[in-house]
Design brief:
The structure is a homodimer. With about 450 residues, chain A is an alpha+beta fold. Chain A has two domains: about 280 residues, Aminopeptidase, CATH 3.40.630; about 120 residues, Alpha-Beta Plaits (2-Layer Sandwich), CATH 3.30.70. The first copy, chain A, is about 35% helix and about 20% strand. The first copy, chain A, has 13 helices and 18 strands. In chain A, strands 1-2-6-3-7-17 form a six-stranded mixed β-sheet, sandwiched between helices. Chain A has a four-stranded antiparallel β-sheet with strand order 11-13-9-14, covered by helices on one side. In chain A, strands 4-5-18 form a three-stranded antiparallel β-sheet. The longest helix of chain A has 23 residues. Chain A is globular. In chain A, about 55% of the residues are buried. The interface between A and B is large, with 104 and 103 residues.
Chain lengths: ~450, ~450
């Protein structure tokens, strides 16, 4: 058994440097969705490769049809020791709207114990703390307690299209006993959590076309269909007044484990605090469910974007030729991705008003996931988090999606441990994204301890 | 009586130059809605002033809180002769979306007998032909058959806020026996028309706010209201499935003269041709009304623009903090502007979903108008148009608004003659706006003849 005290000591002695390195990582605008950032996205991969090498991993950058996949390996624990695969992503969400950031998105800044930057918590900070935990073991003890494979992709924010084909092609390289992912939030500050469910995603773009070009709304209004109005009527058809989704068959396969529902209802929830966090006038959602149920075990149908006609300063009396909405459904177990896509498309076709043509594009999707909680991986995770944070873990759901979790389990046949270090209100995917400095540090300790626990 | 043959001859001999001058006018991007074009808008006013001077008018540029108002006068017909006020506007709509223009918006080009440019028909071409008609009289005969006041403003596309205060302040300067306006379309090519009704306008911006910033649609979706969805539900509440507007009291004061309705139903209408012109899959509108009724005598409620969340390439899983719609109602006689504004705001408040805050801004508005058809002005207009186009005029409605028509009648106490030279499909307010070369030329003749008719 390795000397864990030395590992802890190494981490504590190097925390300032770790944070400075993370700042370097955050300065690279690796926005995978934007082709003009392709060079930056590659730069982030190469930067991370150098850091993995420095930590003591053997690294390979694998080209894909999109952004490269980075693999780091350390196999010195021997074939009898378990192997752990740690997954994360080096790409980030687009930073827009830029004017809503307090400090620039790609110039990390600490305020009130938080690292503000695009990608700080999603997922560069959470990925990089594992690199530092590995470095601590290898520098302090010359070895890791387990074999480790790190897998970092650059397309998580655009649907991870090239990841699973890569994993399927490299099953031998990636063979593992456990998959560890830190790309989610803890239940609350100081309350370490293990994620036990994820919602899946089905992301659509609805395109509505009317006349061949924009028309004068006075000269033509009333006689020619308005695509923006048509789109609004389509969107309004998704829910009833109680927030239930009206897409036929949408809830057919929604299954929630009764014991999990029971546990959710015991969790502390301060509605006023949550309202203050999100800054909305009130909480609303599907009638008959609590907030955590709405977030963790109920599917959604949300508009992510709307665009039509004239949207700038002043008044333009235009009858738009075109209207577009981005709409995504969060799916829960056991909703099937393909089935939901079909039901959604069928619904839009059914409600589409006449006088316009409507097209539904499937942009990307991901399966929902539910943890198999039994087994040594979850026990090791719980002990590692208790060690780092000084209190028992909470088993929490997660409203977001990490589409590849269930795919990893399927292809690699190993259970996944979701050990997130984000926090509520972290603004992932929004301006002023942040990660807690304390969680970055305690997360590094937790990761180091997890490797210890899995190796013992 | 002046020599009308000489006037006609002068026009025919100078048509090429008139067109080239119009091109100069069209090259000035006088987009009144955009502050970055303020200098261009002024340049258009000054350019027009020079041309009026050259025609023989005495000109004055009056400063306002917005864009300047240009007045040109010729009073040589004497105090016994009638005075005619010709109104037009030198500002234009924003040209966006630029990529849908076949040739650039501010680089006029003739294709198939049409002058393509932003402002060609709305309203620079229709305004400028009157300047040229005046020039023809003054150069050919040294005098005009009537006293003339030309009034050109630069804020018609943004609500004419400063025009009526100016008119009210200068009632003596602008005292007239008739107001002539060319800012509308003919019923069809070769079919000269006099406009007998205009719809009024009430332009709103609806702003819906939810959380204080954009949120991750996975982490928060389902528990926090979505402003884009809320906005869609508000918009969907404006109409029933038959296209009737559901705003309480909206139709209360809608009055259409039975004889006009009767005449509308006798007008030729080719549905397939109209569908081809607008390029929509089908014509839709309020059930129980024909297309011309929907356009001329029925009010509307149209979305002019929509914006929320992420609208660029790819998928961003954002729960927007904000959603905006521009919505305008076309009003018909005798709907009262203030009343409609209040009913609209009340309706939006009533249907606004919980969990969001909703604000309704009134951007601008204009009264509907109905012509008083009896009298010498209409007879003179009909004769002038018959002279220029060789056939009898059609009395047509107009779906659009010229908000100041009823205001002119109220303040100046003189009837207005709507003598438009646009054509269906002219793309006013849309990419590829055009004006027929033939109508520019025949319109110049018609204007010259109208002055003659009014003076005889």
């Amino acid at each position: 058994m390795s000397n864990n005290g030395a590992v802890s000591g190494y981490i504590d002695a190097n925390l300032d440097r770790f944070r400075e390195e993370l700042f370097e990582f955050l300065r690279i605008p690796s926005v995978s969705a934007r082709s003009e950032h392709n060079d930056d996205t590659r730069e982030a991969a190469e930067w991370l490769m150098q850091k993995m090498k420095h930590a003591g991993l053997e690294t390979t950058l694998h080209e894909t049809a999109g952004h490269p996949i980075l693999v780091g390996e350390w196999r010195g624990a021997g074939s009898d020791a378990p192997t752990v695969l740690i997954y994360g992503h080096y790409d980030v969400q687009p930073p827009e709207p830029l004017d809503l950031w307090t400090s620039p998105a790609f110039e990390p800044e600490i305020r009130d114990g938080r690292i503000y930057a695009r990608g700080s918590v999603d997922d560069k900070g959470q990925l990089y703390l594992h690199v530092k935990a590995i470095e601590a073991h290898l520098k302090a003890n010359g070895r890791l307690p387990v074999n480790v494979v790190m897998l970092a992709e650059g397309e998580e924010e655009v649907g991870s299209e090239n990841l699973m084909p890569f994993v399927e092609k490299h099953v031998d390289l990636l063979k593992t006993d456990a998959v560890v992912i830190s790309d989610s939030t803890m239940f609350a500050p100081g309350m370490p959590s293990i994620g036990v469910s994820l919602r899946g995603l089905a992301y659509f773009e609805i395109r509505v076309r009317g006349a061949k070009s924009d028309l004068h709304s006075g000269s033509y209004g009333g006689a020619v269909a308005n695509p923006a109005t048509a789109l609004a009527r389509i969107i309004a058809s998704f829910h009833d007044d109680d927030g239930h989704i009206l897409i036929d068959g949408f809830y057919d396969d929604v299954v929630a484990a009764p014991e999990f529902v029971e546990q959710i209802r015991t969790l502390p929830f301060d509605e006023q605090e949550y309202i203050a966090e999100v800054g909305a006038p009130a909480l609303v959602g599907e009638k008959g469910y609590t907030t955590y149920e709405r977030l963790w075990i109920r599917p959604t149908c949300e508009v992510n974007g709307l665009l039509s006609g004239y949207t700038e300063e002043g008044a333009k009396t235009v009858l738009p030729a075109y209207a577009m909405a981005k709409v995504s459904c969060r799916r829960v177990p056991d909703q099937d991705p393909k089935k939901i896509e079909k039901l959604f498309q069928k619904h839009v076709e059914k409600v589409a008003p006449s006088g316009v043509t409507v097209e539904v594009l499937v942009l990307h999707g991901g399966k929902p996931w539910r943890a198999r909680l039994e087994g040594s991986l979850y026990e090791a995770g719980a002990r590692a988090l208790r060690h780092a944070f000084g209190r028992d873990v909470i088993y929490a759901g997660e409203g977001g999606s990490i589409p590849i979790v269930s795919e990893f389990e399927r292809v690699l046949g190993a259970p996944a441990l979701l050990m997130g270090f984000g926090l509520p209100g972290e603004n992932a995917h929004a301006p002023d994204e942040w990660m807690s400095v304390e969680n970055f540090e305690k997360g590094t300790h937790a990761s180091a301890r997890l490797l210890e626990e899995l190796g013992s």
